[in-house]
Amino acid sequence: MDRDLEHKLRGLVDRDEIWSLLLRFARGLDRMDRELVRSCYWDDAIEDHFSFIGGPDAFLDWVFRYTVSTNTVQHHLLSNHLCELEGDNAHAETYFTFVASNIQPPHVLSMGRYVDHFHRRGGIWKIANRVTMVEKNFDLHQSVDDAVLRDERNTCGPLLPARRDRNDFSYQRPIVPRRPPAPK
């Protein structure tokens, strides 16, 4: 294989590993899986998260305490992602949209960017430093009642309950879907 192609393939693999790390981070926050989120950071990392600045363990204490006291469900959605590789260092900007259904309205829609420095140590990429840039927050004062989601056209029975822990359906291996109802 020529050097140019090998360099391009290495870049593709590195970017894929970094993107997968970001997706694990988002999933871990939404499922409140501390171990999964923690695995995304080096021990000496600094998280600068608008009203919090500190190491990964203190960040997780802060964010999970806030989440439990404030909302019932949340989604971190990741989109635009630009990643510059420099050997064992990478610098990335990743856009996020955050939606939370709060215990008490208003609910929250937030948008911003993660500006990250990733470092590869022992062949593994993790967050070395992060600045979370919140660009806009919106209050959402109305949510659709869950009954609307369970309307009479739903002939499959109750919806699968979303969980905020490792009992969530997404952790099930192998995936076992519900069975279709018997014809009437």
Please count the helical segments.
4
Described by strand count, sense and barrel closure, the largest sheet is: 6 strands, mixed
The pLDDT mean sits at 91
- Compute the gyration radius: what is it? 20 Å
CATH architecture: Roll
Q: Which residues sit in consecutive blocks of at least 5 with pLDDT less than 50? A: none
Shape: globular
Q: Helix/strand-derived class?
A: alpha+beta
- Alpha carbon gap, first and last residue: 61 Å
Element string (H = helix, E = strand): HHEEHEEEEH
* Beta-strand residue fraction: 35-45%
- Please identify the top-level CATH class: Alpha Beta
Helix content: 25-40%
Overall structural domain count = 1
Number of strands: 6
Concise structural overview:
Helices cover 28% and strands 40% of the residues. It has 184 residues and is of the alpha+beta class. It has one domain (3-144, 161-171): Nuclear Transport Factor 2, Chain: A, CATH 3.10.450.
Characterization of the model:
This protein is α+β, with helices and mostly antiparallel strands. It has a single domain (3-144, 161-171), classed as Roll (Nuclear Transport Factor 2, Chain: A), CATH 3.10.450. It is built from 4 helices and 6 strands. The protein has helices at 3-30, 34-38, 56-70, 146-149; strands spanning 41-49, 52-54, 71-86, 89-102, 107-121, 124-140. It is globular, with a radius of gyration of 20 Å. The termini are far apart. The mean pLDDT is 91.
List the helices and strands and how they pair.
Elements: H1 3-30, H2 34-38, E1 41-49, E2 52-54, H3 56-70, E3 71-86, E4 89-102, E5 107-121, E6 124-140, H4 146-149
